[in-house]
Amino acid sequence: MSLNSTSHARSPLRNNLLVNIKAHLASIWNTVLQISRDPIGALGLFLVTTIIFIAFFADFLMPYDPNQINVLNRLADPTWEHWLGTDNLGRDSFSRVLIGTRVAMQVAIVSIGLAMVGGIVLGLISGYGPKWLDSLLVLIFDSMSSLPMIMFAMAVITVLGPGTYTLIIVIVSVSIPGYARMIRAQTLSLKNSEFILAERSLNASSGRIIFNHLLPNVVGSLVILASMDMPVVIMLEAGLSFLGLGIKPPDASWGTILNDGYSFIRDSPVLIIAGGGPLILATLGFTFLGESLRDALDPKLKKRGSK
Amino acid sequence: MSKLETTRRTFIQGAGILAGLTALPGVTWSATKDVLKIRVEKDIAVLDPAYETGMLEEAVIRSIFVSLIELEDIRSGSNWKLAAAESMDQIDAKTIRFKLREGLNWTGEYGPVTAEDVKYSFERVADPELKSPWAYQFEKLDHVEVIDERTGIIHLKEPFAPLWLMSLPWYGGHIVCKAAVEKAGGKFNVETPATCGPFVVEKWQPKEKLILVANPDWTGPKPDFNKIEFIIVEDNESALLAYEAGAFDFSKISISAVPRIQKNPPADTTLLMAQSSRYVWISLNLDHPKLKDERVRQALQHAFDGDSVLAGAYNNLVERSAGVVQPGTKSSRAENKINKVDYDKARSLLDEAGASDLMVKLSVLNTTTDMAIAQIVQATMTQAGITVEIEPYDEGVYWTLGDQASGDGWKEQEMILMAFNGGLDPAENLTWFRPEQIGVWNWSRYNSPEFESLYQQGLVETDVEKRATIYHKMEMMMEESGGFIFITHEPLVAVHRSNIAPVILADNQLVPAATKLFT
Lengths: 307, 519
What we know:
B: 519 residues, disordered N terminus, SBP_5_CS (chain B), transport (chain B), signal (chain B)
């Protein structure tokens, strides 16, 4: 009987949840449709979807082990067996490009995801918390933002050594201040709005106000910012790997492939294309998608654009 | 006066004419009588012979200072010949009498080069308090006796076999001006207080170029070039492109470029390939807990596939080394004790040692060749069940890895891929593995009193055969310690204009004053 009463009590909640999920899915679908109608957005969406697909299914798509060395077949030209030829150690370049896609996505998604979480938490604390804490956090954000990104990355890598985790630490550290400042600004503008004041007058807890009202209202613009940051992070990872400060060998990264291509440009120019091509496509894809997403999600911008 | 105006049209016309001229089959590049342009990888930091670190520094020092004797081209056997000395007489095994040539003068107001300058130069390098890195080159020097202005006698504590190849014509053997150096405070950096060689420094633009011009007061054999330009380009590929565009007359190139150059050489170009004394090996830190067990170290030696490394990183242009001593000499070993890869043996040794899932760190300099070696080692050792983790480092950090003075970082090092520019005398290349070098350049931390004793015996032994036996034994001991995996002696690969005949020494440096121009 008690079970029945519980299930009865949960039904409206469950229904509510289902309605919410449906509404969100519909909203996402509408956004996707809206992006698809814009040629630039559609191209961006196609490129990003393809890149993510490759990242997920690289293991099935790779014709060879990307780290398999064959010194007797070094710097081979493209053939039907090796679509993008081989590198200076005889490894299949096409397989390395595919696995490099996964590395780029892993670093970018994990780093930006962690940076978003950090940015949201710190931004909300800064915007909604006491004044002294806000001042302290803003000082930290400003200090972090003033550091040149590459110099900071090189300093951290010198201390911790190169590798995927170090790269993620670097990217998260340099990205958090930007996200946190944006969340803080939005929190400051929302915390005295009427609906928040109404909640307060009903004795709503700070947690409820933050998680139920502030967070849903600020997270949208953060998603746009994050999508615009994807190409920056991909470029940073590739740049550091190009300099030998990123992904550790033998793992492939677009940056390391590009570096190999640069070293052997006169022997096998195709390596430069193999490393640079995906980098260009990924950068364009995420930039186009980000801009289109911004147009779709930011009504103010849409209005301005239509004028 | 008509005004010169450049419009887009005239610019394009001009550019077209220039492009056409360079495309003409008869237009080629060659060295001119006046200037020899040499591409170098690194800039100078010190021009004091007692503290230089080699490379461009040594090339410049050889041009602006003199030594009693000098070496001939490495390809002709590296025999020594008289240079600042007009005579060298070995009175006995411990006594050498020298007489300086007449007409050698210091720049400025410092007068002629004297035997007193020779005494000052050699004793200064040998002085332990001055901590010259080249002190070992004069470690058996007792003193130099000055007989008269141009004559002196070198007195040794014991017979010193490497004197003729490692000391007198080499880094520590350059003569500096006593009065000028003392006036400068006992040492100097890039501002040379007085020089006496065939060239003088005209201009130094840090990280760009260094220009030498003929010394007007030089009374020795006149060099074929009046001006030498050392142009600094770090990257080999960029350097080769610049060479092809006519920017240099001589440039070292990467080994990977050799097949391409052989197949399609640039106009008026000669490809130079010579055995160099630069030796490459993997250092295993004997003090690291992971490598304490001799069987683990031996397993790593057995799991090393030298053939793949030579094919993949060196295009099979070189052979496997059996030590650090210059190959092809009597003192070099014929082959390693562990000469072929044997994964089964490696695996069984690891099993015996209880380290079947061995994971080791290999620190490398972040260069194309070193990274290629490291990745081949990584891939091949996997077959013996060894996981190699590559740690690439930039030059600044890399050269502190095993240096005890830079902190405790050496304790973390497990394997390090290393390369040193060596010399012709075996002692020159073996000196870095003596106990006194532990934590300085002996990054394996190989500590063998017997090795030191043999080293000392080698220094005083003048019989070539007996000396060779000593060095064979020393290299065998190094290998048996498990602290070393010898890889190769890198080749010197360079391109130069066909109308010049460069003179190259064992440290891969070109000697501008001896380089000939054919007209």
